[in-house]
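Hi team,

As requested, here is the filled-out complex form for the adenosine-5'-diphosphate run. I kept the field names the same as last time so the parser does not choke. Let me know if anything looks off before we queue the next batch.

— J.
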Amino acid sequence: MTQSSVAPAAVPGKFVTFEGIDGAGKSTHVNAFVDTLRQGLASVGRTVVATREPGGTPLGEALRKLVLDEPMDIETEALLMFAGRREHLVKVIEPALARGDWVVSDRFTDATFAYQGGGRGLSLDKLTTLERWVQGTRQPDLTILFDLDPAIAAARLAGARTPDKFERESAAFFTRVREEYLRRAEASGGRFVVIDAAQSIEAIAGQLAGVFARLGLPGH
Ligand code: ADP
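And here is what came back:
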């Protein structure tokens, strides 16, 4: 990406994404994860941008409402996801990384492959074309995948919040989403950390603590 007007820092920041099916437990852990990163990075004068997809910019948040609430053609849905992503990359992610700050995003492109590709059956080739167009060679440095049986995730979500368009999907849909996530993790050449999200919240937090050393976080 070349749009950033920010002078690149000597040491670029890192880009970490949280992924998994709805109800797997991402939101439960992301804030504490970001807080620990912030504490570790304070000593080197860096900070952390916590963001999410769909969303992350005013336009992206407007698109989020549409894609999470409105029925639409599956290709329209994928195009809106990537349109929001382009805005997110240009306005938020790339400038932060160029400043040497870190970015933690609750979902990114792996979710589009998993949901629109695996779940909805949209051509993975088309998604790959859009991925290259929108993000060039940019990929997360690390992706933390919360892997969970869709039946357990559905039980956790029941009554926890009003389900959006995706959260109302069938168990079969989430099984396909999960399989595509796992296939991508397998093929990623080590970009993913796969967490068994059926564990207790405490056990998962303990496993996440091991990720900080792997990221080279000062003090870990
Ligand atoms: P996500 O962000 O992946 O959709 P959430 O973090 O919102 O999932 O978690 C969904 C629900 O499951 C919440 O009610 C949360 O309190 C609960 N939950 C999260 N992690 C666990 C866990 N390890 N064990 C049991 N319940 C959990």
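Two things worth flagging: The chain has eight helices and five strands. The pocket of adenosine-5'-diphosphate is lined by residues 20, 22-28, 146, 156-157, 160, 200-201, 204 (CB under 6 Å).

Thanks,
J.
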